[in-house]
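Sample intake sheet
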Amino acid sequence: MTNVFDRLTGQRAVAQELTDAATAARVLASRLDAGPSAPAAADFDAAEHDAAGELDASILDAADFDSPDFDSPDFDSPGFDDPIFDGPTPASVVVPRASMTHAWLFTGPPGSGRSVAATCFAAALQCQHPDVVGCGECRACVTVMAQTHADVRHIVPQGLSLSVDSMREIVQAAARRPGTGRWQIVVVEDADRLTEQAANALLKVVEEPPSRTVFLLCAPSVDPEDISVTLRSRCRHVPLATPTVADIERVLVDRDGLDADAARWAASVCGGHIGRARRLATDPEAREQRDKALALARAATRDSTAYAAAEELVKSADAAAKAISAERDEAETEEMKTALGAGGTGKGTARPPRGTAGALKELEKRQKSRATRVGRDTLDRALVDLAALYRDALVVSMGAQVTAMHPDKAADIAIPMAAYASPEQLLRCVEAVLECREVLDQNVKPKFAVDAMVATIGQVMRSN
């Protein structure tokens, strides 16, 4: 039997924490199922949560962890054994760690698997297996992992941000009782893209949550730039670490069946991002995009090549975004036309109903916004690669013994650059790339932002 948490790469402690919490959630769900006679304290009450997001003592008492049921097969979790105790961990130690709460915040760098962890946790909460939490084989686990479960909603920003209107719709849906599962679960991916108004709308329902609703938020960090302080304080925080090169290589070989050499190379240059490693190992266009980004480090030192290389990088990011979006856009448009009765052609075809043109125009607007986001994300990944290359050169210049982010580019770019430029110059180049990323977040046109970046890098590198 394959547990859903087996999908988390290099996150054993997180998997155990979530398994314990899902186990505790079964107790709370059974108390709620008992009806009016169940303790009222079983309802989630955000006002009684501390900053760690754990349930207050009254709710834990209601769960009755000291009852004989606590040792039943439902709670046969390896997480209840602790190396500092001889035998099973006492309930007084387990309960604070395993307690269930209504709002969770998964953080980690891109590729760490925060959205995967949230989805796995949602599957474990809905799992129907009587003895195993998150069995991975029951209908609930399968549908949650496939993102087709009726009581698990995934909120993924289609544009550059999550609007307040879309969040209000989700808040209303979250107030309903679950139809087939134990919980109504809302997974908010990229919660750092919430607008201030959208975050406030979400905060209201998180502060006064329905008894059967669980919110799973995903963000890069707990920095106020990524998630509001108030919203973070209402969530239990689950930090995820960047997977190691060995972990990523093992996933590519064992799960994806890739060649060992290709997997090893992709794992070493992906920056800890499993999805990126998979694309680099299998997609020639992804490798070409990376090469263009890294070549900018050399091109930026000369005016004759700097701006042409910058323009090519921006154009390639736009082209990649269009290629990614085109097939999906076409399928969405045809699906909507069919649903509205506007897809037919030829003699005898009925006129499309009123409002069809407006609906299609709104869809086109969303698709353009999504294409813009994909293009910005693609360009941002290229800038991350470029910053990492300057970092490699800086490491060589300082004589530090640390692993290179782009080991395959050490001999022809990083080492010569370290010999040519001082550590101060290389550090300023890193800062210029990071400043460009920040400017792009402020919706400056990519061409202007990248041109300004290469101008700064050129001035810095010629200041010898």
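Comment: The chain has three domains: 4-239, 243-282, 303-339+358-461. The radius of gyration is 25 Å.
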